[in-house]
Amino acid sequence: MTTKMRSEIAEQPTALRATLDSLLPKIDEIRAMGEQTRQLLFIARGTSDNAAVYGRYLVEAHAGRLSALAAPSIATTYRRKLDLDGVLAVAISQSGRTEEIVETLAWAKDCGARTVGVTNGGEDSPLAQAADIALCTVAGEEKAVPATKTYTTQLAALAVLAIGLGADVDAGELRRVPEAVEKLIAEPGDIEAVVEGLADKQGVVVSGRGLAFSTALETALKLKEACYLHAMGLSYADLLHGPIAVVDADTPALLVAAEHSPTLQGTIALAERVVAAGAAAYTIGGGGALAQAGTAALNGPDLPEWLAPMGLIVPGQLLTEALARRLGIDPDAPRGLNKVTQTD
Fold this sequence. Notes:
Elements: H1 4-10, H2 12-23, H3 27-34, E1 39-43, H4 46-63, E2 67-69, H5 72-76, E3 87-93, H6 99-110, E4 114-119, H7 126-130, E5 133-136, H8 149-164, H9 177-186, H10 191-198, E6 203-208, H11 213-227, E7 230-235, H12 236-240, E8 253-257, H13 264-276, E9 281-285, H14 287-293, E10 296-298, H15 309-326
Helix pairs in contact: 2-8, 2-9, 3-8, 4-8, 4-11, 8-15, 9-15, 10-15, 11-15
Domain SIS: 26-172, 194-334
EC number: 2.6.1.16
GO molecular function: carbohydrate derivative binding; glutamine-fructose-6-phosphate transaminase (isomerizing) activity
């Protein structure tokens, strides 16, 4: 029986094409708003927060704009008004109905920010209605609780946003993403070896750096949600500052890198260190060099680093779905979770 999660993973190339067709015409509108702002504030929770991490690295590395992740409780709990003049507030919500995110975007506007909403909830969703510009993804209904196609289309929307804000990238390369994702779905690498390696483990450390850090965080979240693993998502720089002590024969590492990235050599060195310490180092992406340094390898996309996270997450999604089934867990409906989460 094919799970809903597995079916929705397979729908990602179509969802990405539809989203790009819908959002690329908005670049001029984004550019006009970008001229009125200097820096960005990303507002999100959960999977959408991991998308925001990608947005932050992308905008800072390629558009030269200072960016930050918001603490929504400043708006909703502390109710503190800040000076957000010159700020572009970008709220991200799969449903567009998470009250905390909608309220925080409204707060940002009241504080002087210009606003963008990224959502799969459509133009009529509360988030889209609250934003100056709505970037509505076209992923279709997502029935499995773990987000897959809504996440990758959020990344696509943030790539379009970065282009509108003047990122020094080739916008035409975006059109390569759906095909790269299709290839990864067909050829993800040695999924079975990694599933077997994690099946009797209670925890795993998932690590990447730079633009791949968002993938490490999202992969760790998926393994927590659907496989009930104690999965720790960390930048490898933070991992080396102490938490690497938890990596041992009972706690393997899952290391993520784009093949064309200034962080690749550091990731390779980390894989070699983990293996030398007697632990397993499973890898995602990074080409043959990272695969050779690790214990078993999942493939990465043939994409430039700024787009690679849209592909790097796919083997992690497939791994999560396969591991959940191996553990006797229904990945479509993990315990304690709902599709839309409301927070105070």
